[in-house]
């Protein structure tokens, strides 16, 4: 896939999936603005991309507030003259069950993921609209945001909000030919390697050099960072000019289009619904097949 002449920002690209996206975009010909918290980590990522024959510049900054977003877009324009692609990947976890989650746990996760996506996308959209020749906003969701997940009040709320922003911005930016999609990735990184169902197979795969087993790659849709990057490169490319407003899952051998929330069953009554009428209608009516919630447990095979 050809991205020559395109300029991309990837937030949180010092390691993990973000570094994978930055490397893949650079390998396809884009020039990349690398961002992360630690200047030494940013420098190492820029060196890594440069050694592989790519072009990158680094902006250490804590994504969340407007000045960081403006510094990132400013660096793309100052160093490379324009901005074509933004990948809002930076993220943290502060997992706790609801009754133990502190205000700081909630605010910090929302600040980096939800506010960081908003401030960076707004700065990018302003620049792309000025340029007048389209663009790509590639947001990062999560299965937790699509379904809810135990211990992840803050993270699930932020990621669900990001999917909602993708649909909203796809509407608002359509006329400017700026596409907006949410990637819903799953990959073995520092963030996921400690999930109990996956930890032993990831460790064995790394120790032996053998690929993850098919039940992990296909059924659980979990693989390596490199398994995920192709979707971001595709979305950044001219081939994806008509793809917008979508939440797209990728991981291991799996590529999926997520459904958007829609009314599943509907009932009507003349004059509106009383509590008693809803209670009578519910069991055999719209409540007969309730929706699932939570990420299904991985299909661990019998050993
Ligand atoms: N790994 C998965 O399976 C998975 C699944 C769903 C969603 N995601 C999402 O993908 C993204 C990357 O995840 P990962 O697994 O590579 O995680 P990771 O922890 O390996 O990498 C995240 C990077 O973001 C950086 N970062 C954190 N806060 C930042 C901030 N305020 N400003 C700039 N950089 C910041 C970190 O320093 C780190 O380098 C996250 O948004 C995550 O929620 C990952």
TrEMBL record:
Protein name, as recorded: 3-oxoacyl-[acyl-carrier protein] reductase
Family the UniProt entry places it in: Belongs to the short-chain dehydrogenases/reductases (SDR) family.
Top-level taxon: Bacteria
Protein species of origin: Catenuloplanes nepalensis
GO function term, MF aspect, one: 3-oxoacyl-[acyl-carrier-protein] reductase (NADPH) activity
Signal sequence extent: none
Alphabetical list of Pfam families matching this protein: adh_short_C2
Keyword annotations of the record: Oxidoreductase
UniProt KW rRNA-binding keyword: no
Domain Ketoreductase, residue spans: 6-189
EC number: 1.1.1.100
InterPro entries: KR_dom, NAD(P)-bd_dom_sf, Peroxisomal_Beta-Oxidation, Sc_DH/Rdtase_CS, SDR_fam
Top EC group: oxidoreductase
Membrane listed as a keyword: no
Stored SMART domains: PKS_KR
């Amino acid at each position: 896939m050809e991205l020559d002449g395109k300029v991309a920002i990837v937030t949180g690209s010092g390691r993990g999936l973000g570094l994978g996206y930055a490397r893949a975009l650079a390998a396809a010909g884009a020039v990349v603005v690398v961002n992360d918290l630690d200047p030494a980590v940013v420098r190492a990522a820029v060196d890594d991309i440069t050694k592989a024959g790519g072009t990158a510049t680094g902006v250490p900054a804590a994504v969340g507030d407007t000045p960081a977003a403006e510094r990132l877009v400013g660096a793309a324009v100052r160093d490379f003259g324009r901005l074509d692609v933004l990948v809002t990947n930076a993220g943290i976890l502060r997992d706790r069950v609801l009754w133990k989650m502190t205000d700081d746990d909630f605010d910090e996760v929302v600040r980096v993921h939800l506010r960081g996506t908003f401030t960076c996308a707004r700065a990018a959209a302003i620049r792309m609209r000025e340029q007048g020749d389209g663009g790509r906003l590639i947001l990062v969701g999560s299965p937790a945001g699509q379904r809810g997940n135990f211990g992840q009040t803050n993270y699930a709320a932020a990621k669900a909000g990001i999917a909602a922003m993708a649909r909203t911005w796809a509407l608002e930016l359509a006329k400017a030919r700026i596409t907006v999609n949410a990637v819903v990735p799953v990959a073995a990184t520092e963030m996921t390697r400690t999930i109990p169902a996956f930890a032993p197979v990831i460790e064995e795969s790394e120790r032996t050099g053998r690929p993850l087993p098919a039940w992990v790659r296909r059924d659980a849709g979990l693989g390596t960072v490199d398994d995920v990057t192709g979707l971001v490169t595709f979305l950044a490319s001219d081939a994806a000019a008509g793809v917008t407003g979508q939440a797209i899952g990728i991981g291991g051998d799996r590529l999926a289009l997520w459904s958007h929330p829609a009314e599943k069953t509907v009932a009507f009554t003349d004059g509106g619904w009383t509590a008693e009428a809803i209670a009578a209608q519910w069991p055999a009516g719209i409540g007969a097949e309730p929706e699932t919630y939570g990420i299904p447990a991985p299909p661990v095979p019998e050993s």
